[in-house]
Amino acid sequence: MEKNYFKKLIDLYFINRYSDKTEKRAQLWLIKESGEKEKEIYLRDIWDNLDVKTDADIYQQLDKVKKRAGITVVPKVSFRTIIWRAAMIFLPLMVSATFLYKLLLPVEMLSFETHAGEQKEISLPDGTVVWLNACSKITYPEKFSERERLVTLDGEAYFAVEKSESIKFIVNAKDISIEVLGTMFNVRAYENEESATTTLTTGKVAVYTDSDETFILEPDQQLVYNIKNHSSRLNKVNVNDNDWKSGVLSFQEMNIVEIFRDLERRFDVTITVNKIMSSDKYSMKFVNKEDLTNILDVLSDLSGEFNYEVKNKTVIIK
Amino acid sequence: MDNKKIEALISGDEKVFEELFIAYFSKVRVFINGIIKSEDDAEELAQDIFVKIWTTKENIDSNKSISSFIYVMARNTAFNYLKHKVVERNYMESFDTSDYIVTPEENFFATEKAILLEMHINKMPVQRKKIYKLSREEDMNNGEIAEILGVSKKTVENQLSLALKDLRNAVNLFNTFFL
Question: Which of A145, A193, B82, B126 is 20–30 Å from A304 (CA)?
Answer without folding.
Answer: A193
